[in-house]
């Protein structure tokens, strides 16, 4: 594995999931692999799970980790080719990425969608520039378009909790007070389309995701119909892709509650977290035995560890 | 030891002090204990001594350490049970704490009193919620009510510097330009009441601490009387507990100076730091040979190391 | 080596450069040296290269590293002797430095010139106070006056790329939208004066540096004349030293471009980074094969590693 940016970087998803579950059984068995290797984690945005789980995964593999909150620890990065840098950005990503690549064997980058400039977000500028200029493998810690470590985690978690070979998995939109990026649902859709599941998406009209990610997935505006017989309910808010970055509904009828969960096949409830309680989903669901959001978050370590292990074993000289 | 939140978590204070002094003699002798164990340090407030000394202690024990400034690195945490999370808090502590507990074997938490809502501060909400939801041992790095790592340090330091079996220890209030929490004097009182010392508290009227912490301690409004024959002077400012969080006096007559120190039995001067020079205490005292504030701060490492060692040896599977 | 603050702390520059190049060949050969030793890195200002390269260097030597953004993680530090600390500074550097010295075997400090108070900047207050009070070796990560790890890096890089025993090295001022400190050009001048190079400085009138640093170096206001036959062009902006901290010219005629580079002896282009593209230097130069700014930045690791190794081997008990 060279970079880890999307499901396209995974030649064999089922093998990667097995690897992650093997790491979970034996977290410190590959501690020699990361010896004298350094992982840089660059955050252009806040992070809790990703920050801690990726750091933990790297340390389990014996790596050193250097964490940087880019904008508060360092300088603003100019992304524009050919820019006359007379403004507030002190360094161009051409130098920034290449320099960090001098100090790190692998770089993780988090940079969210700005949600104001659709075209710019769709180019996934920051992570793409790091891939172009850093000269070392890049791991997405959530980009404008995707959150692949989360999606791999989700596949692993479904694999652990499924009670039939091909479970029904529902991605449901839910209300939220703020406009959120589409990265998680985009990415989840992309990975579900590769995984061996019966995948369906439900959301209000106007919340259609980019078909580049949803592909062949079934889509319905009828949340209850989607929930019927489901084995996994995956809730997530996102802002509109058509009316880019806008909140076109906050309809509380879309909040996941116990009544809706009764329509399912005793479905497990999943969410990438952080989650707004009693807005996205009611306490009664989150606090029920069907909620697996905490072990799901715990699996972030094994997803990251499987990915880092793959990249470490592909490094030149290994 | 399960958690470390107050002196009540210490079954045998004298044994813990001995352990700390043994760690000081042989800092790296237990490096195997923390192998493959991770300490998470969460700061809701600024920190210098606690941050560095606890990190150092954990590294001396062979642990990995992950440090997070919660509000600037991550998301605001909702503490209220049943909250409809439509505001500025993105994550509930139920998830936040439980998720961090998935990545860390021990979690240290610092969260100061807000000093505006007495009842809320008295519930020591943040640390209590972490104890409730994290699922792993919690170490207080100073909560709304207590600063037990500081107090253990103080007991260790008094043990090192005392010249008689039962020294006279004076906790004296001193003026300060800002309203400060009562955590340090609360905690110091609680620990002194368990330690083998003759303990007396002096402060202006209106600065009475909660009797839950001061217990059987003698209290006087006459600072000079308190200083007479003292072996240790421990200075600290705090805001009023009765007129909660208010500054009811800035009387410079309470500043510790050389003249007052002459009333003592060549007392050692202690302070938890940071200290406002020439407000809380004059340069002439801080710069005198009787000031032991720097070795006192140095002892923070051994206090933390003794506590972490105790918890590490109590972890399931150990 | 006790401290590393300027070229004066280096008894044999040529030996230190050899040591750095030896570390580059064998980065992990001295991992035992830093065993159980802790490096504290304190940033009063933003940092990318210095932060990551020094951390990496210390880890290569087996050290633990604790990084702190002083003002955002901790308390404001009072620097003034005898201050009555009734204002916004919670801790005096006397305590701050001494306490950090209790937790760290070596401390790195970055604190830029404020550019408003010439006298204060010239006293290099922050780093001087740490030297005075920390009680352990101090490494400058750029002070008000100097950036010695950068300058050592520059000497190493010139050593690697030079094609004649005594190359011609040009330090050229270049325009910039913001007022910048003189630390880098000061320090570069000081080190070039010791290194075996033919050194010349060029800048517009009004940008004369303090002769304490430029010493015997030739200075010309004619940039083109300076460039003629040069082997290395080192570009850098700085604000005026005479009209302290002022921008007295933004003349774009001083921007380094391909045409000027043609006057040189196929000179290598160097810059300490971050660099303002198309303001300090044109893309055509930075993106040309003659630009060595990235490997130059990479050499920051080996400069730091050589310095830390020297200090580690001089620590008491070694």
Descriptive keywords:
11 strands, 14 helices, Rossmann fold, 2 domains, homotrimer, five-stranded parallel beta sheet, arginine biosynthesis (chains A, B, C), 318 residues, globular, alpha/beta, 37% helix
Structural description of this entry:
Three copies of one chain form a homotrimer. Chain A has 318 residues and is an alpha/beta fold. Chain A folds into two domains: 7-146 and 300-314, Aspartate/ornithine carbamoyltransferase (Rossmann fold, 3-Layer(aba) Sandwich); 149-297, 3-Layer(aba) Sandwich (Rossmann fold), CATH 3.40.50. The first copy, chain A, has 14 helices and eleven strands. The radius of gyration of chain A is 20 Å and the shape is globular. Chain A starts with 12 loop residues before the first helix and ends with a helix. The A-B interface holds A 27-28, 43, 46-49, 51-53, 55-56, 59-60, 69, 72, 177, 273-279, 283, 286-287, 293-295, 297-298, 301 and B 36, 38, 40, 64, 66, 68, 72-75, 78, 82-87, 90-92, 94-96, 98-100, 102-104. Chains A, B, C: Its EC number is 2.1.3.11. Chains A, B, C: Carbamoyl phosphate binds at residues 47-50, 75, 110, 147-150, 272-273, 300. Chains A, B, C: Catalyzes the transfer of the carbamoyl group from carbamoyl phosphate to the delta-amino group of N(2)-succinyl-L-ornithine to produce N(2)-succinyl-L-citrulline. Is essential for arginine biosynthesis. Chains A, B, C: Keywords: Amino-acid biosynthesis, Arginine biosynthesis, Transferase.
């Amino acid at each position: 594995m060279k970079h880890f940016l999307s499901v396209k970087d995974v030649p064999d998803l089922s093998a990667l999931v097995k690897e992650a579950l093997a790491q979970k059984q034996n977290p410190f068995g590959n501690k020699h692999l990361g010896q004298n290797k350094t992982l840089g984690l660059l955050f252009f945005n806040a992070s809790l799970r990703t920050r801690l789980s990726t750091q933990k995964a790297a340390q389990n593999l014996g790596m050193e980790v250097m964490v940087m909150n880019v904008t508060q620890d360092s300088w603003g990065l100019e992304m524009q080719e050919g820019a006359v840098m007379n403004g507030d950005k002190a360094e161009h990503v051409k130098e920034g990425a290449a320099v960090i690549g001098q100090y790190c064997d692998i770089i993780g980058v988090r940079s969210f969608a700005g949600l104001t400039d659709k075209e710019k977000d769709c180019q996934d500028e920051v992570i793409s520039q790091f891939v172009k200029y850093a000269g070392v493998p890049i791991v997405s810690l959530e980009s404008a378009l995707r959150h692949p470590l989360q999606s791999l985690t989700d596949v692993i978690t479904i694999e652990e909790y499924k009670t039939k070979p091909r479970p029904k998995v529902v991605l449901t939109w839910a209300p939220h007070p703020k406009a959120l990026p589409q990265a998680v649902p985009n990415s989840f859709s992309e990975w579900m389309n590769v995984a061996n599941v019966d995948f369906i998406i439900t959301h209000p009209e106007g919340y259609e995701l980019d078909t580049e990610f949803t592909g062949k997935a079934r889509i319905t505006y009828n949340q209850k119909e989607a929930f019927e017989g489901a084995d996994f309910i995956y809730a997530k808010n996102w802002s509109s892709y058509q009316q880019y970055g806008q909140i076109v509904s906050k309809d509380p009828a879309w909040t996941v509650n116990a009544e809706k969960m009764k329509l399912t096949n005793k479905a497990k409830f999943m969410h990438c977290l952080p989650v707004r309680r009693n807005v996205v989903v009611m306490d009664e669901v989150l606090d029920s035995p069907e909620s697996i959001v905490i072990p799901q978050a715990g699996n972030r370590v094994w997803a990251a560890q499987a990915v880092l292990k793959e990249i470490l074993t592909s490094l030149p000289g290994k």
